[in-house]
Amino acid sequence: MAGEKTGEGATGNIQHASSQGLDYISTLFVFMLATFVGLEVIRRVSRLLHTPLMSLTNAISAIAVVGSILIAGQQHTEYKFNLLGLVAIVASVSNIVSGFLITDRMLKMFKKREGNR
Amino acid sequence: MSTWIQITYLISTALFIFSLKWMNDPKTARRGVFAGVVAMLLAVIGTLINPAIVASNYKWIALAVVIGSAIGVPLSWVPLTAVPQRTALSHAFGGLATGLVGVSEFYLSFSGPQLELGHFRIAALCIEVLLGFLTFTGSLMAAGKLQEIVRTRPITYKGQNIANFSLFAIAIICCVVLTIDANYKFIFPIIVFLALLFGVLLILPIGGADMPTVISILNSYAGLSAVAMGFVMDNKLLITAGALDGSSGLILSIIMCKAMNRSFANVLFGAFGQVQVVAANAVKKTAKSATPEDAAQIMEQAGLVVIVPGYGMAVAQAQHVVRELYDELTERGITVKFAIHPVAGRMPGHMNVLLAEADIPYTDLVEMDDINSEMPRVDVVLVVGANDVVNPAARTDKSSPIYGMPIIDADKAKTVLAIKRSMNPGFAGIENELYYADRTLMIFGDAKAVVGNIVKHLTAESG
User: Which domain holds residue A69?
Assistant: First the structure.
């Protein structure tokens, strides 16, 4: 049942008040672990690549597209919520597209000696 | 169905981690981008198959995706000197997205049958909206300053910090009240407004030299607001991906702060570059100047040349002529290295990208810590558009505002050639002792023109 609930996102119903407290704790666990993984992984990123790293994480932080789609896609009593969701999708998708494209464009430029010429 | 969604999200999370892991080496970095793209596709697909989404809404979502792509593609074509602006703009979009989602979530919780957000979620929602909208206006301001639409000099006024702090305190109090009782609905728009306002006020006193740190902090905020969204929506993918972004921004900000020997608080509330103008009242000293021709002759005699690039190189678009100089010198058997200070430029790694664009092999881009031990053996240091990062006052002058900042020890080299427009103190308004040193020769002029002239003299001699 807990799995059912997580899938439903924004308006995720909260019938199981008893399991609710546990869920918060588990999301906090996930946050803590992800942060530690993130810190360890990012620390090893080459300093050469800090600009591409930032544009890559730009694209990754556009994961907000998930929430935007859920808001835009669900049936609401008023259209304005769908509209807000759609604007959020536009903003996130533009970040995803430009973030990944420019990261790749920059990374292509990093060559070793006698790379292409 | 929901199990499949979760599995898709799980794979997506793993790929995001790999994506960042592969960024540890330029050789594998492009694979990292690919992993990131796949991860994002999975995330989107996993969300689209959610049964909560109504079939008739897919066409609207598709339309939004098309519009977003139409904005995103041209944004990826910007010249590399404009990458800091693009990054800031993209943080603004990210902040806007999370902010808008937060607003919808809040009001939806009152209009739907599935109301009741609970204290934890309301608190998370407040953080989401606060960080989202603060990032939105803050990043727009930062982008405006970087693009020089907004005045780039720090804007300060009396009681600025007090005003900012109290504003932030009010926002926090509003969040707390709303968390305790979500029925005070009217507080919510106040939080949104304060966040928008605070974003602007926070960036007003920030000067160009602090931009690398500020962009990193905003990067972190964009990620953290996605995390908060994950808490509200009970979505673990949002939490993990947001946390990865948040920690990336955090690490970059720490590196930037260390590279300037300043604390977070000092960057945000210190108004660097404002106070120091007063400090620039030192006794008039004379600097020795040289012509590009002299410079060419000096460099020809050298065995090891180190080029120190700074923001001035980016402004003058001089990276390509610098590459020509690099070619001319290496053809003569001279070793040429680039010394990169972590805060050179307007965002982390800015110089590396510009030099890579000019086809300079990344193996010749050396970090500050690695080059400094070699400095006494260096024959010629050529400073192109850098200033504070080579100012020996950071080591010697306790009264200097940059005292304690790690610098590239250009002054320890046998000869220093510094290209500069004039003797005016640089961005931070701090006198640079290096320019008056015995071993330093100043070459006045635009970085691009001067380097171009040096190259001309070199080719003329060889041809």
Answer: 46-117
Q: What is the pTM of this model?
A: 0.89
How many structural domains comprise chain B?
3
Residue B98 and residue B267: Cα distance in Å, rounded? 26
Kindly report the backbone phi and psi dihedral angles of residue B259, in degrees, each rounded to the nearest multiple of 5, phi listed first: -70, -15
Domain boundary among B269, B292, B322: B269
Q: Is B402 helix (H, G, I), strand (E, B) or coil?
A: coil
Residue B309, chain A, CB below 8 Å: the answer is no
How many folded domains does chain A comprise? 2
Residue B300 domain boundaries = 279-462
| B168: pLDDT strictly greater than 60 | yes
B229: nearest CB among A41, A64, A109: A64
Whether residue B382 sits in one domain with residue B285: yes
Which among A104, A31, A84, A101 is positioned nearest to B104, based on CA atoms?
A: A84
CB within 8 Å: A74 and B57: yes
What is the ipTM metric for this complex?
A: 0.90
Q: Which of B210, B245, B388, B409 is catalytic?
A: B388
For residues B33 and B90, membership in a common domain is answered with: no
| DSSP for residue A74 | B
Residues 11-40 of B with CB under 8 A from A: 13, 16-17, 19-21, 23-26, 29-30, 32-33, 36-37, 39-40
Using one digit for the tens of pLDDT, what is the confidence trace for A52-77? 999 999 999 999 999 999 999 998 88
Scan residues 205-224 of B and list those with Cβ closer than 8 Å to A: 215-216, 219, 222-223
